[in-house]
Amino acid sequence: MSAAPLRRHARYVIEVQHLTKSYGPARAVDDLSFAVRPGRVTGFLGPNGAGKSTTLRLLLGLGEPDAGRALLFGKPYRELADPLLRVGGLLEAKSTQRTRSAYHHLLWLARTHRIPRSRVREVLGMVGLSDVAERSSGGFSLGMSQRLGIAAALLGDPEVLLLDEPVNGLDPEGVHWLRNLLKERAAAGHTVLLSSHLMNEMAVTADHLVIIGRGRLLADTSLADFTAEHCRSVVRIRCHEPERLRGLLREAGAEAGPEPDGTLRVTGMESREVAKLARAHDIGFDELAGESTSLEEAFLEMTARETQFTAGSGAGPRGGAGHGAL
Ligand SMILES: Nc1ncnc2c1ncn2[C@@H]1O[C@H](COP(=O)(O)OP(=O)(O)OP(=O)(O)O)[C@@H](O)[C@H]1O
């Protein structure tokens, strides 16, 4: 089913203003401010422990901020009339009543929110769970639980979707389906905010990026601007006098460094210019290749200093509380 186009286009539907939240001495979200517009998919990106889930939970009225505000349609979630009809949230995939069937879980949600029973079968079909609708959700795989969570978020056909790591556990077909669904809803004027720690996934799904690290805002930018600003072109050249060429490149304002395979890695100059410089100084070369630093590399570089958990750091994720635990 395609999303019905919306007439009203408020400038910002989601507003996070100076939001701050600590758990004991640990500050999960630190004076964070950003706003999300309708009509595009906004990716909420950050490494593990950056504060994405905490922010989404506060937006969905689960927990109180220490300071600041998290608003939907200008109001805290709890003040919205018929919230399920306006905002669809996915926090933790395994949060359903495990003994209930997928159908009955959704039916219970529909009944408590005055949503017609027919919508239950409709969303089960949309997420591909029709065949297992009568099975108890306790036995669902992570991907199936994720699909059920997405079905619950879609149940009220809300204008806003807030999804925490929705592609977790989905198979490639599921990832593709979800990506198209989110793009379709955004194109119809809905507001879509989804979190991820994977830039590559966001690169093919999101139009806009809000990047956080250690609870603080690092970037609020369109994907196009992020790419233009951070993805530098890299040239690799295998030449006969690498040290001389390196000096010439530096004089010309480019950066060049030797690679273990004997090539020079050049940034700050396009491949055509590198070749021209080498030829102008009679430096012969056997190989020349141009590439670009990936978005993932740019994201890792940006968040490197703000990453709480890195391999070998000795720090582990929060003890006891699983991913997305409330
Ligand atoms: N219920 C909680 N009790 C204690 N600390 C918590 C709790 N929830 C989150 N934290 C801490 O807050 C910080 C931010 O966690 P959060 O889950 O919001 O990050 P995240 O960006 O969603 O990370 P991930 O991608 O790993 O899910 C982390 O240091 C985490 O340990």
- Biggest sheet record: 6 strands, mixed
Low-confidence stretches are: 312-326
SS strand fraction: 25-35%
In which range does the helix fraction lie? 25-40%
Give the CA-CA distance, first to last residue: 32 Å
Q: What is the C-alpha radius of gyration, as a whole number of Å? A: 24 Å
Largest sheet, order of strands side by side? 5-6-7-3-8-9
Structural category is: alpha/beta
By DSSP (H or I, 4+ residues per run), the number of helices equals 11
Overall 3D shape: elongated
Q: How many distinct beta strands?
A: 13
Explain what the structure shows.
The chain is α/β, with parallel strands linked by helices and 326 residues long. The protein contains eleven helices and 13 strands. It has helices at 52-59, 83-86, 102-112, 118-126, 142-154, 172-187, 199-205, 223-230, 242-251, 271-280, 295-303, and strands spanning 14-23, 26-36, 40-45, 67-72, 87-90, 160-164, 191-196, 208-213, 216-222, 233-239, 255-258, 264-267, 285-292. The strands form three sheets. The chain has a six-stranded mixed sheet, sandwiched between helices. The protein has a four-stranded antiparallel sheet with strand order 11-12-10-13, covered by helices on one side. Strands 2-1-4 form a three-stranded antiparallel sheet. Strand 1 (14-23) and strand 2 (26-36) form a beta hairpin. Helix 4 packs across helix 5 (142-154). The protein is elongated and about 80 Å long. The chain starts with 13 loop residues before the first strand and ends in a 23-residue tail after the last helix. Residues 312-326 have low confidence and may be disordered. It binds adenosine-5'-triphosphate (ATP). InterPro entries: AAA+_ATPase, ABC_transporter-like_ATP-bd, ABC_transporter-like_CS, P-loop_NTPase. Residues 14-239 form the ABC transporter domain.
